[in-house]
TrEMBL record, chains A, B:
Gene Ontology molecular-function annotations: DNA binding
Keyword Coiled coil appears in the UniProt entry: yes
Keyword rRNA processing carried by entry: no
Pfam family, one: PadR
Protein name, per record: DNA-binding PadR family transcriptional regulator
Location of the Transcription regulator PadR N-terminal domain: 6-86
Coiled coil: 118-152
Natural source organism: Actinoplanes italicus
InterPro entries cross-referenced by the UniProt entry: Metal_resp_DNA-bind_regulator, Tscrpt_reg_PadR_N, WH-like_DNA-bd_sf, WH_DNA-bd_sf
DNA sequence: TTGCGATGTATCGAGCCGATACATCGGGAC
DNA sequence: GTCCCGATGTATCGGCTCGATACATCGCAA
């Protein structure tokens, strides 16, 4: 997963580790927490070994000083890396639909075809719907077995699921209707779509 | 974290691994995904070694058959385990406020004192507020650098943060006002509190 | 009776995190 | 001037966690 993220970012521009981490933190939304160096550097090493990226000592002409000793290492994507990135972008496994995987794929949606985007959005929706059904099950069947706090946590989780499903529906509709990257404006005049009441017995 | 969850569940009743996992999946809300056996069994081994739980081969009198060979192993909490659980409940580190940690602590709120509950709720709120500010920063400063999809992901994340902060505010108010485990009803007549418009410039 | 899905225990490789160490850079305090 | 500190930067280690896998039993239906 991180593999895909790194290749995607390096496709935009060569970068060194520190920079890469910052980009990772800002671009990959809330779904994917900031990556740690203990993950980043070993992964970079692995990608280099696989031939998907190459490192180039930054000669002080191009990039600021950091004179001598351990200079900063700039990574850039290789031709094989670009191919691999393209493959990863369209490939979908179960991990594509968990929080982290979906976040990364979504971030690179503008570099994918509509078919893939729809497949991923629908897979994600399916995943969240399953989670939602599980929660409804609990809330309906086992409500008396749970204390008030646990119950409230489940209820909050259920609301979040319902909200995300609605969001995904919107994106899917948008995607099908052609106008791909155009999202509706959220302004004071249209703060929220009319919300159907929760169906709790 | 899982340590706290296991001890908490075993405090309710002795259980074997499979059962423990199911309880874990249902009780710990959406914040904490279902635990894997590759995590559960090593953790149980560790807890047993620490003396916080003990295992008792289920003799077929009490629990259904599963005749012979590798019988199911029932774990129960020890006196030291109970003490340790009480300690863990009130102790708060940084990991208390991430999704998993908060989920587990919240699940056991009914076994904590109000002071601890407030401390945890406020810590969690602070954490989410930080995330929210980060997202606002990005959306305000770097919006032009990001494509439409990435932007939409950030916007969705921001909304989720704002929503969770409001939820926490509600819980905190509730907690302060005395009536501890009483949550307001969500029915068709009160589907949602009036929502202030998003403050986007 | 055969076979299959749920129940049940357990391990292994690999990914990932937090803590830690170490080094340089730019700038403000004194 | 120099001294210290926070941001920048690379890197490793121990330990937790996951997904895949293996193996065994139980209840039940074809």
């Amino acid at each position: 997963m991180l593999e895909l993220a790194i290749l995607g970012l390096l496709q935009e521009a060569p970068m060194h580790g520190y920079e890469l981490r910052k980009e990772l933190a800002t671009k990959l939304g809330t779904l994917r927490a900031a990556i740690s160096y203990g993950t980043l550097y070993p992964t970079l090493k692995r990608l280099k070994l696989a031939g998907w990226i190459s490192e180039a000592e930054a000669n002080s002409d191009i990039i600021p000083p950091m004179t001598s000793k351990r200079g900063r290492v700039v990574y850039k994507i290789t031709a094989e890396g670009k191919e691999h990135f393209a493959d990863l972008l369209t490939q979908t496994g179960p991990e594509t639909y968990d929080d982290a995987g979906f976040g990364v794929h979504f971030t690179f949606f503008s570099r994918t075809d509509r078919a893939t985007r729809l497949r991923i959005l629908e897979g994600r929706r399916r995943r969240i719907e399953e989670r939602r059904e599980g929660l409804r099950e609990i809330l309906a069947r086992a409500a008396d077995r749970l204390d008030a706090y646990t119950l409230e946590l489940q209820r909050h989780g259920l609301e979040a699921c319902e909200r995300e499903v609605r969001w995904l529906e919107e994106l899917i509709t948008n995607e099908r209707s052609g106008r791909t990257p155009a999202f509706r404006q959220r302004t004071e005049s249209t703060p929220e779509p009319p919300r159907p009441p929760l169906d709790r017995p």
